[in-house]
Amino acid sequence: MSKHTGIVTVGITGASGSIYGIRLVQQLLKANYKVHLIITNAGWIVFREELGLDITNREAVLDEQFRTYGDGLNYHPLHEYTAPIASGSYQNHGMIIIPCSMGTLSGIAQGASGNLLERTSDVMLKEGRPLLIVPRETPLNQIHLENMLKLSKVGAKILPAMPGFYHGPETMDDLINFVVGKALDNIGVEHTLFTRWGDK
Predict the structure, then answer these.
(1) CA-CA 20 to 30 A from 3: which of 36, 38, 112, 144?
(2) Where in the chain are the domains?
(3) Using CB atoms within 10 A of its CB, is residue 155 exposed (0-12), middle (13-18) or buried (19+)?
């Protein structure tokens, strides 16, 4: 029996807000979850542009960001179709795409399975497992909204990267932690990232 609390797949795409995905993976590892991580090529570029990370050595980036949080990380290149998460027989407890670009959203909504991230999302839907999508785009056009509605109708949950303010955020970390905490709430992972309404 695995010593890990559970198994979660995380996708990080090229939408703005890659810090959300990094913080989420760190929290899952801290909570002793086994994490299967997929990062799109555009996601790596956002690591460089928004976070100032040197992406010429991707293994070094992963080591720097996650090594102190636990030993449960399993990184998969975008086209590693032999990964266990590509199969419905693998007992994956859920998947979070954070942040989710509109291009990735479209691919999932159309059932394209053009890469491992899209394929694993399709597996979540066909197996009836939790699929949480955290879009980070504004404004949204009708195509974006229709794709979100389509995915919602087939079982995905849409959790926009919209931080709350009722908990009295004082730093950017507070705003990041609110969104990440809401994502963790929706897959049943305990955390203390923000003060809940009524807990002050």
Answers:
(1) 38
(2) 7-185
(3) middle
Give the CA dihedral 58, 63, 69, 73, nearest 10 degrees.
60
CB 158 within 8 A of CB 149: no
Count CB atoms within 10 A of the CB of residue 178.
21
For residues 19 and 175, the answer to whether their CB atoms sit within 8 Å is no
pLDDT tens digits for range 67-95:
999 999 999 999 999 999 999 999 999 99
Q: Which fold has domain 7-185?
A: Rossmann fold (3.40.50)
pLDDT tens string 166-200 = 888 999 999 999 999 999 999 999 999 998 887 76
CA geometry: angle 100, 106, 112, nearest 5 deg: 115
Q: Is the pTM of this model over 0.85?
A: yes
Amino acid occupying residue 154: V
